[in-house]
Write a structure and sequence with these properties.
This protein is of the alpha/beta class. The chain has helices spanning 4-15, 53-68, 82-86, 106-118, 172-181, 214-219, 234-247, 259-271, 276-280, 296-318, 320-327, and strands at residues 17-27, 37-40, 46-48, 75-81, 93-102, 121-128, 132-133, 136-138, 147-150, 153-158, 163-168, 186-192, 206-210, 226-229, 252-255. The protein folds into two domains: 4-158, no CATH class; 163-316, NAD(P)-binding Rossmann-like Domain (Rossmann fold, 3-Layer(aba) Sandwich), CATH 3.40.50. A five-stranded antiparallel β-sheet has the order 3-2-1-5-4.
């Protein structure tokens, strides 16, 4: 997934000018949250999405018309009532900011691209019909992929907000899992000790690592990472989940296998000195309930769904207002 400002920079170099459409605010049900963005080229090609449907189609048309008109405002706010105006069933209200970025701002765009590549970055900018949005990088906490618009000032967060996943095992289910995760908000470190275990090509959000000692591998995992064990070896699986549970900093530790495998591992983990409370947090079997197929692709889909549920719950715990907005509907 190409970072946003790298996309803008590439479009700017190819076309000379580009439009960015940002959801600045929502009220009620909406297809995407504030901070969703599209980068739209003069020929109508685009990257990103603000939720599809009539709203997105209209946004693309507005952006193209704005790019084609030299006298059009460089930045303007547009409000839409999704039900009455656009016939979308969401029924909420969405405020869009349509912004034209020209080659004269290439240096600023390149700097934002460099900063975004280095890690999360927050900006603030005021809308101007003649100048667009002159963003200033600020030292404020702002979750990547979000935006707020207050008193004419647009505050935005950019950067990588994917959940780290340490996936142990490159067997059939592991391979199916990385394919299922390719378009999703996860950053996967894929580990296996076997030579030539990995496929020749992997998705862009996957980093391959030759597995040595599981504890050492997990020492480099960030706080809040998810851990999944599905190696070719039960002793290796045991070492992985033992190290992950003992670290007590990973909110999801999953183990592929049956209830009998869980019972056997529980006895061994207790013997190794882990408490019953820590072992109770182990997820085994993995995957959402009600999906019983043993086909690798199906196991992968059920496990991804389970991790997405866990990921959203963890985010909601620290962002209750945003979670309430998402629960109100996506349109």
């Amino acid at each position: 997934m190409t970072p946003l400002w790298a996309q803008v920079l590439g479009s700017l170099d190819r076309h000379g000018r580009v439009a960015m459409v940002t959801i600045a605010a929502t009220r009620g049900s909406s297809p995407r949250d504030a901070g969703a963005r599209m980068v739209i080229n003069p020929d109508g090609t685009f990257t990103g999405t603000i939720g599809g449907g009539t709203l997105e189609w209209k946004a693309i048309a507005i952006a193209q018309a704005t790019l084609a008109n030299p006298k059009a405002p460089k930045a303007e706010r547009r409000g839409f009532a999704l039900g009455p105006e656009l016939g979308q069933c969401c029924g909420g209200n969405v405020e869009l900011i349509v912004e034209v970025i020209e080659a004269t701002r290439r240096e600023q765009v390149a700097e934002l691209s460099r900063r975004e590549a280095a890690g999360p970055v927050a900006t603030r900018g005021r809308l101007s019909a003649t100048a667009g949005i002159e963003r200033e990088i600020v030292d404020e906490p702002m979750r990547p992929g979000t935006a707020t618009f207050t008193s004419g000032v647009l505050a935005e967060g950019f950067g990588d907000d994917r959940r780290a996943l340490f996936l142990f095992g490159a067997g059939h289910v592991g391979r199916a899992l990385v394919l299922a995760l390719a378009p999703l908000p996860f950053k996967v470190t894929w580990l296996d000790p076997r030579p030539d275990a990995f496929p020749a090509y992997v998705p862009a959000n996957v980093t391959l690592t030759r597995l040595g000692e599981p504890g050492e591998a997990l020492a480099g995992a960030p706080e809040g990472a998810f851990v999944l064990a599905m190696t070719h070896s039960h002793p290796l699986d045991l070492a992985v989940v033992g190290a992950a549970l003992a670290a007590d900093r990973f909110p999801y530790v999953g183990l592929i296998g049956s209830k009998s495998k869980r019972a056997r591992f529980t006895r061994q983990l207790v013997a190794a000195g882990l408490s019953h409370e820590r072992i109770a947090t182990l997820v085994c079997p993995i995957g959402v309930e009600g999906v019983d197929s043993k086909a690798p692709a199906v196991i992968a889909a059920a496990t991804v769904a389970e991790m997405l549920i866990r990921d959203e719950a963890l985010r909601a715990a620290v962002e209750p207002a945003a979670a309430d907005s998402r629960r109100s509907g996506r349109g």
